[in-house]
């Protein structure tokens, strides 16, 4: 009886769409007011984990039955992703953990908890690896609900939703090292509100120094960056030359993750 009561409590507390709004400080979900630096947040690292004892039984929400795919070995889904943020921040997820909107996590209706998936934004080819530790989204046209940080890295915050591909990752002791975040370095040259001017500078410097370049949008500004460089020393050596003209240029470090598909 105790186990049954505990399971019922976890389901009530963890299934976000089924909960009463009185449980939350806010009636509507929204982005946080104070946003930390999210660019350096690394992807979730797939490692072998034990499934949650109470969060992997079939369940029902709003009269609809959902099956948990406990023995799943491979999955590729395409559909619409959404994200959830400040309303649920600090509340329990379906497997009893506390939801942190600045972590690389997600909610899925059917995958066992926890699971790891690679999510690709089909509109811009950006990818993230997230740890699934929650249930949802309980909308017929959505397949995954991403944390605020994951949605930020997929560049889908403003639109609210995005067409994505979800690929299951089965972590093992042999392949988990493939997902270890690796550093890369960029030279931040300047920021300009004129996109055409910024792009011209990026292309010119890229050709001049025979290196890759990119524009990073930050509010109304376009940041010109050279790189990536796999070694800090490479970036520092070129920085000395770049600073002869662009005195405020500096080196920044960014984390990335190698990802593979278990299709």
TrEMBL record:
GO terms for molecular function: lytic endotransglycosylase activity; peptidoglycan binding. The keyword Lipoprotein applies. Its EC number is 4.2.2.-. Keywords: Cell membrane, Cell wall biogenesis/degradation, Lipoprotein, Lyase, Membrane, Palmitate, Signal. It is found in: Cell membrane. It is a lipid-anchor. GO terms for biological process: cell wall organization; peptidoglycan metabolic process. Residues 179-258 form the SPOR domain. GO terms for cellular component: cell outer membrane; plasma membrane. It is an enzyme of class 4 (lyase). SUPFAM superfamilies: Barwin-like endoglucanases, Sporulation related repeat. NCBIfam families: rlpA. PANTHER family: ENDOLYTIC PEPTIDOGLYCAN TRANSGLYCOSYLASE RLPA. Belongs to the RlpA family. This is Endolytic peptidoglycan transglycosylase RlpA. It comes from Moritella marina ATCC 15381.
């Amino acid at each position: 009886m105790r186990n049954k009561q505990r399971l019922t409590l976890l389901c009530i507390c963890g299934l976000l769409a089924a909960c009463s709004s009185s449980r939350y400080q806010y009636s509507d979900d929204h982005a946080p007011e104070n946003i930390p630096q999210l660019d350096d947040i690394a992807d979730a690292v797939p490692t072998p984990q034990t499934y949650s004892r109470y969060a992997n039984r079939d369940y029902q929400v709003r009269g609809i039955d959902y099956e948990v795919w406990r023995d799943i070995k491979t999955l590729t889904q395409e559909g619409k992703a959404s994200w959830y943020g400040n309303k649920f921040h600090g509340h329990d997820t379906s497997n009893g953990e506390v939801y942190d909107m600045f972590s690389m996590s997600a909610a899925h209706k059917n995958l066992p908890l926890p699971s790891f998936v690679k999510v690709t934004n089909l509109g811009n080819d950006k990818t993230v690896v997230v740890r699934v530790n929650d249930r949802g989204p309980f909308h017929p046209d959505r397949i995954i609900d991403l944390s605020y940080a994951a949605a930020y890295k997929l560049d889908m915050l403003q639109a609210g939703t995005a067409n994505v591909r979800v690929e299951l990752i089965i972590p093992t002791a042999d392949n988990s090292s493939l997902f270890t975040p690796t550093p890369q370095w960029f030279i931040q040259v300047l920021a300009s509100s004129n996109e055409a001017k910024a792009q011209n500078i990026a292309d010119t410097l890229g050709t001049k120094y025979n290196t890759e370049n990119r524009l990073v949008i930050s509010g109304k500004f376009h940041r010109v960056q050279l790189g990536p460089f796999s070694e800090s020393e490479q970036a520092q050596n070129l920085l000395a030359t770049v600073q002869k003209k662009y005195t405020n240029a500096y080196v920044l470090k960014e984390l990335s993750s190698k990802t593979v598909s278990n299709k």
